[in-house]
Amino acid sequence: MEYKTVNLKFKSRWTNSELNTEALDAAINAEASAGWDVVSVNVSTLFGYPQSALCVYKKEQ
Questions:
Q1: From first to last of its 61 residues, what are the pLDDT tens digits of the chain?
Q2: How far is CA 38 from CA 15, 26, 31, 46, 57, in A?
Q3: Where along the chain do its domains lie?
């Protein structure tokens, strides 16, 4: 297996306390279209505000 890690940084940091699911869906779907499977997603926050999502993908070599 081959693994890949992507750190998706969200643009609106201090103005929105909700996770930008549209940006996250778009990033995951883009990698899935290239043959990558999601292993895990971890959302990083600062004072409760989502800052980024660390996505780990895998695919067979």
A1: 999 999 998 876 566 667 778 889 999 999 999 999 999 999 998 888 888 899 999 999 9
A2: 28, 13, 9, 24, 5
A3: 2-59
